[in-house]
Amino acid sequence: MGWGFVVVLLTMAMVIQRTSSIRANWGTQASHPLPPDTVVRMLRDNNIQKVKLFDAEYDTLKALGESRIEVMVGIPNEMLSTLASSLKAAEKWVAINVSTHISTNNVNIRYVAVGNEPFLSSYNGSYLNTTFPALRNIQTALTKAGLQNQVKVTCPLNADVYETSTTLPSGGNFRANIHDLMITIVKFLSENDSPFTVNIYPFISLYNDDKFPIDYALGVSKPLSDGETLYNNMFDANYDTLVHALEKNGFGKMPIVVGEIGWPTGGDKNANVEFARKFNQGFMDHISGGKGTPKRPGPIDAYLFSLIDEDRKSVEPGYFERHWGLFTFDGLPKYAFNLGTTNTGALVQAKEVNYLMKKWCVMKPNVRLDDPQVAASVSFACSRGDCTSLGVGTSCGKLDGKENVSYAFNSYYQMNDQEDKACKFSNISEVTKTDPSTETCRFPIMILPYYSEAAQGQVFFLPLLMATAIVLLSVF
Ligand SMILES: *[C@@H]1O[C@H](CO)[C@@H](O)[C@H](O)[C@H]1NC(C)=O
Ligand SMILES: *[C@@H]1O[C@H](CO)[C@@H](O)[C@H](O)[C@H]1NC(C)=O
Ligand SMILES: *[C@@H]1O[C@H](CO)[C@@H](O)[C@H](O)[C@H]1NC(C)=O
Ligand SMILES: *[C@@H]1O[C@H](CO)[C@@H](O)[C@H](O)[C@H]1NC(C)=O
Ligand SMILES: *[C@@H]1O[C@H](CO)[C@@H](O)[C@H](O)[C@H]1NC(C)=O
Question: Are 100 and 234 within one domain?
Answer without folding.
Answer: yes
